[in-house]
Amino acid sequence: MARIFGHARKSTLALRQRKRFLIQQLTIPEDLLRASVVERFSTCGKSQCHCHHGGAKHGPFYYLTQCLAVGKMNKFLLKGAEQQQAARQGAEHFRALQEQLEELSQINAELLRRQERLLP
Question: Is 119 inside any structural domain?
Fold first, then answer.
């Protein structure tokens, strides 16, 4: 769900200044990941294990998940702490970039609503 930035109350000059600032700040990190890091606990295949008899489940296990297309998921186990941290950081970089792009899009929509030009 996109965040609403509330640019309708700002002046056109303020919108253009914010737009210029956002464009100057846009960078694409090399570790960008459109994915989520998921924590899971599970039961094992041993019927006598404590995880089957009300005991604590095994885990946590961390997975990187990506939705590639309708019904097509990519998911794999993140085995080490370094790999887990890299995945979290790449996913956070994607979310930050997505938020910047969303704000830029909302500014452009507001400028169009005011019948203003999008390009200088």
Answer: no
